[in-house]
Write a structure and sequence with these properties.
- It contains 13 helices and 18 strands.
- With 443 residues, it is an alpha/beta fold.
- The chain folds into two domains: 99 residues, Urease, subunit C, domain 1; 314 residues, TIM Barrel, CATH 3.20.20.140.
- Strands 1, 2, 3, 4, 5, 15, 16, 17 and 18 form a nine-stranded mixed β-sheet that branches. The chain has a six-stranded parallel β-sheet with strand order 9-10-11-12-13-14. The chain has a three-stranded parallel β-sheet with strand order 6-7-8.
- Helix 8 runs parallel beside helix 11.
- The longest helix has 18 residues.
- It binds 1-[(4S)-2,5-dioxoimidazolidin-4-yl]urea (3AL) and zinc ion (ZN) (2 copies).
- The site of 1-[(4S)-2,5-dioxoimidazolidin-4-yl]urea has 12 residues, from loops.
Length: 443
């Protein structure tokens, strides 16, 4: 196929290392990678690193039903500005949540109208919809998301043990992954009740109501069920090095498990929650520095598979209260995953660039059945994030729905200059292209 254009002169971050390569793009795909490709037209990428577009496996865009919290338009602008070319949307906090084929089709249609980048949809696994998992798989969900503790929304109830176990049996049969929010319901609910009954309402009281042991207990149980059912398990947003270590032990014993953490656990600590407040409330909560150090150690050892943003904004009135327990739990981070991995990972801790690319692009694409995504290789989609690796900057221009973004004003080294989706420019210098995303189904 003749090329539509070339990207010339860039340092290309391939799964096999960083190389000075030219890239030819034709029909939205990468058609050739070579040290020198002649012909034109060409874009000059000299001085830049070319990463595969980020595949953000964990995003809440809340449309339909809670578009005013965050929707496809602003949410995907933020993602694209952060170098993402695809994302996997969670079945909540859109309302009603994606528990049936009908809700899947509804959200898929909205995304195809409004999303700037490609997207897949998670379906829910709750006690309400065990009977609908087959139709969701047939419709094309990436996998099934279950909460092991209260989700924050009564319309998406937590999966009790039997629901989770039966859900995993079904997922195994259907060839889909089960993703779990792993915090113990028993533990977190009781600790919350006791604290609130005693009139506690501060940041430290909230943090103390969700200690690491509540995460470890749930991770252990999810691993047990995955072991017993043979299901593929994806542990979302692990917040502690100990939880990663426990899950990695399970993986080494042969459990089919992947391990996710989020940029906020890598970039912020409990001390930041005290300083910044509501914008950093999340569950599981941010941890002390020593726990964060453990988490980085696990990540640098290669025990973390995926870094996803868990972007989950809410309107300011839900992020404003004298009582920290009453605030919405969820962090706005769609735009800054690469920044955190490049500054905190590559520059500060020596994380190789191909490991950065694996964590936020290649590994999620592989895990969730998207072989055309997440890699700069011939035949893959021409999805790129063009990065000025040496540029230090203050993150000021944020495109997500609300201003309560804890990354505002943070300084990073490693800046996304432009993003290409299937060969089309979707973002450059604060401006967005006319591109529209397509629905991704796992193969
Ligand atoms: N419902 C929802 O978005 N919950 C997310 N927010 C958060 O802080 N943790 C979550 O799981
Ligand atoms: Zn969660
Ligand atoms: Zn989430």
């Amino acid at each position: 196929m003749s090329a539509d254009f070339m990207l010339r002169g860039g340092q290309v971050v391939t799964p096999h290392g960083v190389k000075r390569l030219d890239i030819a793009v034709g029909g939205g795909k990468i058609t050739e990678l070579a040290e020198e490709i002649t012909g034109g037209p060409a874009l000059d990428a000299s001085g830049l690193h070319i990463f595969a577009g980020v595949v953000d496996a964990h995003v809440h865009l809340n449309e339909p039903g809670r578009t005013h919290w965050e929707g496809f338009e602003t949410g995907t602008q933020a993602l694209a500005a952060g170098g993402a070319t695809s994302f996997l949307d969670m079945p909540l906090n859109s309302s009603p949540p994606v528990l049936t084929r009908e809700r899947f089709e509804e959200k898929a249609a909205l995304g195809q109208q409004k999303s700037l980048i490609d997207f897949g949809l998670w379906g829910g696994l709750t006690p309400l919809n065990l009977e609908q998992l087959d139709e969701l798989a047939e419709a094309g969900v990436i996998g099934f998301k279950a909460f092991m503790s209260h989700s924050g929304l009564d319309e998406f109830p937590a999966a009790d043990d039997l629901t989770l176990y039966e859900g995993m049996r079904a997922a195994k049969r259907l060839g889909r992954v089960v993703a779990t929010h792993a915090e113990s319901n028993e533990f977190t609910r009781r600790l919350t009740e006791v604290a609130r009954a005693a009139g506690k309402r501060g940041v430290r009281d909230y943090l103390a109501s969700r200690p690491v042991v509540t995460e470890l207990e749930a991770v252990g149980r999810a691993l047990l069920f995955a072991h017993e059912t043979g299901a593929a398990l994806h542990l979302v947003h692990l917040s502690s090095g100990a939880a990663v270590a426990l899950a990695y032990e399970g993986k080494q014993k042969g459990i089919d498990v992947t391990i996710e953490t989020c940029p906020h656990y890598l970039h912020f600590t409990d001390a930041d929650v005290e300083r910044i407040g509501a914008a950093l409330k999340c569950a599981p909560p941010l941890r002390p520095k020593a726990v964060q150090d453990d988490l980085w150690r696990e990540l640098l050892a290669g025990h973390v598979d995926i870094v996803g943003s868990d972007h989950s904004p809410a309107p300011p009135e839900m992020k404003t209260s004298e009582n920290f327990f009453e605030l919405w739990g969820g962090i706005s981070g769609a735009q800054s995953t690469l920044n955190v991995l490049l500054a905190g990972g590559h520059h500060a801790r020596g994380l190789p660039l191909e490991a950065v690319a694996a964590l936020c692009a290649l590994n999620p694409a592989n895990r969730f059945g998207l072989p055309q995504k997440g890699r700069v290789e011939v035949g893959a989609d021409a999805d790129f994030a063009l990065v000025d690796l040496g540029a230090s900057f203050e993150l000021g221009q944020l495109f997500d729905r609300w201003s309560q973004n804890p990354y505002r004003g943070q300084t990073f080294r490693g800046q996304v200059k432009a993003t290409y989706l299937r060969g089309q420019k979707v973002y450059e210098n604060g401006q967005f292209g006319e591109v529209r995303g397509q629905l991704l189904k796992p193969v």
